[in-house]
């Protein structure tokens, strides 16, 4: 491509070999689209399951991310192809709706595209393939409902929730601490859950991390942590039964909004001005003391004079606290955010059983813990780790575990993992294909073959013989009519996922099948790729 100018100075573009370029359409376009979708699926295939590999991603500015979370991998990949972008959006949809299964949904979509390509080569029309896939997905979703089991749990019986979260965490880098992290996640979700309405507000769970320590030091705090310390080093580091004034107004004299200038030509005038400023500070501090506040948390900063006065008046203070943290502190302590000192009243103070400042290791890092709050519905998961990458990956893993616990509270039906649900659905879809007399039955059988891609990938990633392992589990399920048999990825010695306590949420698995089918149908119906240069 070259830029040239005509005799009037107007620019135009010369495209080399333009006459040799052809636009893809019809079957060629569909095969090119399928190829692009399968390329994305192949990248994630090796990251599936407890023995899946991790990917190292480097951003343009040099930041490195190590993860095996499907949504994170695809988010950080620089994808240009429009069909590949559909696969990225597929993983993102699964992440937003369910929070887990982001790798599996892309692997399933890739398998469906591979089977569709074979059917296209046999001369079957893409619309008939799409219709067959739609029928098969309905059969699979209905079969999942039949084989699903109800999980009973309560505030005193959290073991079922913990086991399901452990299944999610077993495929992450943090799997050596999966029991402890699963318990933390479940306790955090139950703290903010409304079990009567079956509703969970994950915004009330704050996930914080600090480099240092080890993963086992990760803790659940029934309150809020703020990455700040007391504004003066001589202020008390621990306050019990704290009454907290949450302020968004600054500790400083009011500034006129018009341009102004003060001429000071004598010492007396300077002394008067200084006394006036000090009176402002004294009034502000006294106002806080009068309403009974024992701790001030301020969104803005204050100068050394105000800091000195606060320390002398024995009123501990924290400055430069962000807006989001202020809101969480207000929710947790039952306080009100006060925009003006004149509006400060005893009723607007937040209450916490303990506020303490904590130092970490030999560094000067300090954090403020606000615990035993009046409203304990706001909690914090505080993660420790050897480096920043470990902490970021742990945050992503805990997010998945929190989402799984939330999904079980909303709908407490589970299916068995390790590919057991997919194999059972594959058998059911294959059996149902004979009931459909049209060409769609080929697509329904192809859908059943595509469902086997997940257990095959699990076996491959675990170092097992994929075909042999799948055949053995398949025949075992048919012989015993038991949908609990799956791939023994951890080499425990049994294929029964019920014994291994490998569970997945029903709605998560159903969503995987439905989303993968929708995206594949969309890709199959595209028969022309038009770029801006074709206009």
In brief, what are we looking at here?
With 535 residues, the chain is an alpha+beta fold. The chain has 17 helices and 19 strands. Molecular chaperone; assists the folding of proteins upon ATP hydrolysis. Known to play a role, in vitro, in the folding of actin and tubulin.
Characterise the protein shown here.
Helices cover 47% and strands 16% of the residues. The protein has 17 helices and 19 strands. The strands form 6 sheets. Strands 10, 11, 12, 13, 14, 15 and 16 form a 7-stranded mixed beta sheet that branches.
| Total number of domains | 3
Using the coordinates above, name the CATH class of the largest domain: Mainly Alpha
Total DSSP helices:
17
- Stated plainly, the CATH topology of the largest domain is called GROEL, domain 1
Family: Belongs to the TCP-1 chaperonin family.
Protein name: T-complex protein 1 subunit epsilon
GO molecular function, one term: ATP-dependent protein folding chaperone
Keywords: Acetylation, ATP-binding, Chaperone, Cytoplasm, Cytoskeleton, Hydrolase, Isopeptide bond, Nucleotide-binding, Phosphoprotein, Ubl conjugation
């Amino acid at each position: 491509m070259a830029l040239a100018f005509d005799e009037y100075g107007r620019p135009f573009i010369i495209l080399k070999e333009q006459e040799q370029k052809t636009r893809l359409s019809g079957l060629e376009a569909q095969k090119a689209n399928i190829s692009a979708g399968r390329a994305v699926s192949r990248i994630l295939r090796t990251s599936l399951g407890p023995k899946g590999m991790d990917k190292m991603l480097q951003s343009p500015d040099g930041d490195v991310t190590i993860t095996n979370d499907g949504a994170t991998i695809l988010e950080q990949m620089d994808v240009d192809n429009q069909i590949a972008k559909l696969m990225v959006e597929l993983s993102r949809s699964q992440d937003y709706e369910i929070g887990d299964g982001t790798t599996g949904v892309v692997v399933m979509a890739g398998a469906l595209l591979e089977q569709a390509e074979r059917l296209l080569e046999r001369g079957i029309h893409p619309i008939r393939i799409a219709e067959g896939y739609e029928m098969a997905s309905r059969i699979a979703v209905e079969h999942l409902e039949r084989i699903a089991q109800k999980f009973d749990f309560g505030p005193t019986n959290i073991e079922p929730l913990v086991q399901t979260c452990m299944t999610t965490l077993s495929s992450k880098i943090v799997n050596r601490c999966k029991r402890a992290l699963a318990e933390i996640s479940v306790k955090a979700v139950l703290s903010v859950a409304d079990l009567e309405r079956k509703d969970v507000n994950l915004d009330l769970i704050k996930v914080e991390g600090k480099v240092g320590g080890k993963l086992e030091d990760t803790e659940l705090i029934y309150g809020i942590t703020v990455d700040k310390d007391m504004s003066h080093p001589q202020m008390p580091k621990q306050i019990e039964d704290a009454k907290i004034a949450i302020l968004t107004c600054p500790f400083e004299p009011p500034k006129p909004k018009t341009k102004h200038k003060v001429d000071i030509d004598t010492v007396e005038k300077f002394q008067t001005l200084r006394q006036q400023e000090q009176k402002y500070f004294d009034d502000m501090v006294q106002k806080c003391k009068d309403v009974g506040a024992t701790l001030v948390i301020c969104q803005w900063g204050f100068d050394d004079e105000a800091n000195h006065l606060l320390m002398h008046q024995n009123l501990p203070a924290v400055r430069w606290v962000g807006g989001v943290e202020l809101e969480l502190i207000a929710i947790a302590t039952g306080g009100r955010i006060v925009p003006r000192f004149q509006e400060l009243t005893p009723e607007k103070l937040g209450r916490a059983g303990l506020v303490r400042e904590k130092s970490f290791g030999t560094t000067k890092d300090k954090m403020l813990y606000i615990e035993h709050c009046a409203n304990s519905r706001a909690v914090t998961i505080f993660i420790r780790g050897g480096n920043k990458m470990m902490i970021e990956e742990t945050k992503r893993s805990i997010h998945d575990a929190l989402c799984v616990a939330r999904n079980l509270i909303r709908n407490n039906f589970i299916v068995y993992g390790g590919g057991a649900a997919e194999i059972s659905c594959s058998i059911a879809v294959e059996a149902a294909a004979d009931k459909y007399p049209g060409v769609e039955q080929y697509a329904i059988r192809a859908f059943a073959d595509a469902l086997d891609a997940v257990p095959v990938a699990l076996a491959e990633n675990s170092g097992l013989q994929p075909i042999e392992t799948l055949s053995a589990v398949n025949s075992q399920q048919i012989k015993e009519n038991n949908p609990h048999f799956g791939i023994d990825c951890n080499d425990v010695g049994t294929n029964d996922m019920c014994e291994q306590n490998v569970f997945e949420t029903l709605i998560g698995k159903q969503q995987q099948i439905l989303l993968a089918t929708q995206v594949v149908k969309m890709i199959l119906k595209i028969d022309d790729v038009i770029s801006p240069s074709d206009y």
